[in-house]
Amino acid sequence: MECLQCHQKFCPHVTLKSIFSFRPLIVSQQCQLCRSQFEEISNGGCLICSKETTKDCCADCLAWQAKYPNSTFKLEPIFKYSEEMKEWIALYKFKGHRALCYCFAEEIANYFSNQHGAVVIPIPLASSRYQKRGFNQVEELLKAGSVTYKKLLNKPAQTMEQNKKSKVERLQTSQPFQLNLGAIACIRGRDIILVDDIYTTGRTMYWAVELIEQCSPKTIKGFCLAR
Ligand SMILES: [Zn+2]
Ligand SMILES: [Zn+2]
User: Fold this and answer.
1) I need a labelling partner for 139 at 20 to 30 A (CA). Which of 47, 90, 130, 150 fits?
2) Architecture of the domain delimited by 43-79+116-226
């Protein structure tokens, strides 16, 4: 197999557990050396979002709790949003190297194999973004991991693109998402997992959480590649 990042040939490490897991064999298309650049988030950080902190809850999450006091949202990220991850995201998302979605296919498949019965909802992309990029980076990550998802949210066109705004501007804009037709019935009483590629300020995720929590889910959490 060829590594999608450094293009060297490598032998994927296949465990006996994955062979006998009764699901299609999914391996990440990334060599051990490239993979070792990315640091997994360890236990012991913020109880809500896993960010490194010496307290129970990080300052970001305390601010979100003040804004959404009834929210039960929790985030389960895999990797730290390190410089290496920023570079990877830039290649994948902004330079449009779509095939890179297979770099973390196994990690994503493993995470979702333990989430039986949950409704998986990707964070949507504005259609103008989608047309420019040609793919939704979140959906591609899920497809690479053979994860079934439901597009229950959409993002109508906005005047200014999110990443061209400053952090302050991003935190102040109004709800960018809408529920799709039939979303309420799909969400009510179910375990929901919202999925995004990265989580930085939490603003994007909490806009989605706000809409989903209005539909009375049983539980709600978020998954992202990096935090
Ligand atoms: Zn490599
Ligand atoms: Zn936190």
Assistant:
1) 47
2) 3-Layer(aba) Sandwich (3.40)
